[in-house]
Structure formats: structure tokens, C-alpha cells
Amino acid sequence: VEKIRQKTTFMQWEREDAQRKEMERSAYRNSKAGIDYVQQLAQQSWLRTNDVCTYEIVKDAFDGIIGQLNLLFCNLIDSLTAKQINFINAINNGEINFSSEAVLKKYNLGTSANIKNLKDSCLKKDIIDILPSKKIVLQDPIFAYWLKQQR
Questions:
Q1: Residues 149, 101, 97, CA angle at the centre, nearest 5°?
Q2: Residue 29: which of 129, 145, 150 has the closest Cα?
């Protein structure tokens, strides 16, 4: 009985450890994208500044970064199916219950059984992350912003 209890405890520890490691990897991926953009924005703002950095300079630098990434994002969108694009737009609009009839219809996602395939394909392409809370988010915050601007 004691050996079974120890084995069960060990297996639970392994599961918790694996979950913790995945949370750390996910947090790192999400924070790294944000940090890279902050550094890039700071550099682009600094290069545009003569004496004092203003809101207009930062906004111009941000728009420049968006312009630089535009082709990359267009190519990414071109590589996706219509349903994958719709799924990404649903995520970007804050939807959480993807299998609900309203969301399936609003975003033309097909059947609720199709949601798993859409999730898996977007995960495989490193477009989305699933947080420990099971919330699905876009990995790239600038891509999320760019998508919203395309409407």
C-alpha cells in the first residue's frame, strides 16, 4: 500500500512539474515577443529623436515597425485557411467559448468538432498559445494589433 501511495504521489509530482514547466515556457514565449518589440520601439524612437522624444516620435516609430512587419504578417495570413483566419480573429476579439453556436456562426468556424483541429493547427504554426487558465491568446502582440487594423 505504501509503495502504491508513493508511486501515486510521484506521478502527481511529475504532472505538476510538467504543467509548471509548460507555464514557464508559455510565459517566456509571450514575454519575449513583448520585450523584443519594446527594445525595437525604443531603438526606433531613439533614432528619430533629436533632443526630446515626443509622443509623435514614438507613434511614428511604432508605425514604422508595423510597416516593416506588414509583409511578414500578410504572408502568414496567406498561408492560412479561411477558417484558421476566422478562428484567429475570434481569439483576437476576445471570444472564449469557440464551440458555442453563436461564435461558430459569427466567425464561420464550421462545427464544434472543428475547433480542436483549428486550435492544433494554429498551435503547430506558433500563432497561438494556450495559457494555464486554458485561455487562448495570440503569441505576437504586434500581429494582434495588425489584425485589428486590417478591418
A1: 60
A2: 129
CB 111 within 8 A of CB 120: no
Do the beta carbons of residue 141 and residue 37 sit within 8 Å? Answer: yes
80-133: pLDDT as tens digits: 999 999 999 999 999 999 999 999 999 999 999 999 999 999 999 999 999 888
| DSSP SS3 for 78 | helix
Instruction: For residues 80 and 67, give the distance between their C-alpha atoms in angstroms, rounded to a whole number.
Output: 21
CA distance 81 to 118: 10
pTM above 0.90, yes or no: no
Determine the Cα–Cα distance for residues 86 and 95; give it in Å rounded to an integer: 11
Question: How many whole angstroms separate alpha carbon 6 and alpha carbon 62?
Answer: 55
Strands of 16-147 (E only): list them.
128-130, 136-138
